[in-house]
Amino acid sequence: MKISFLILIFALVATGCTTKSTARLKAQNAFLAGQNAALRQQQAAGVTVVGAVQNPEVPWVTGLTLAQAVATANYVGADEPTQIIITRQGESATLDAQVLFNGAVVPLEVGDVIELR
Hints:
The chain has helices at 2-15, 20-45, 66-73, 97-101; strands at residues 47-50, 57-58, 83-88, 91-96, 113-116. It has a 5-stranded mixed β-sheet. It is rod-shaped. The protein contains 4 helices and 5 strands, in the order H-H-E-E-H-E-E-H-E. It has a domain at 46-116: Roll (Outer membrane lipoprotein wza fold like). The longest helix is centred in the first third of the chain and has 26 residues, at 20-45. By secondary structure, the chain is of the alpha+beta class. Strand 3 (83-88) and strand 4 (91-96) form a beta hairpin. The N and C termini lie far apart (84 Å).
């Protein structure tokens, strides 16, 4: 009987007991780890700039604008672009580049592709 009791005690100590607060803390930490992983993945996805640029992959930041993305991509073309095409989820919109040069704020979304022509 004593041996069974000792084995049971040893098993409980080895596996540990989980209290509600410990379980809640573990669940909260797992949730936060998942959110952080999703944020890192989203930032890695970023925006792609096609054209005469040095850095075609622009990391995502909240509130990223077209002007910021083009500046980050570092346009190196001999002439200024005349046309900008933004493709989002398979649909494209064409802008006159003057819109960008005149200071218009064009918000971007994760995964957008910007083509400078």
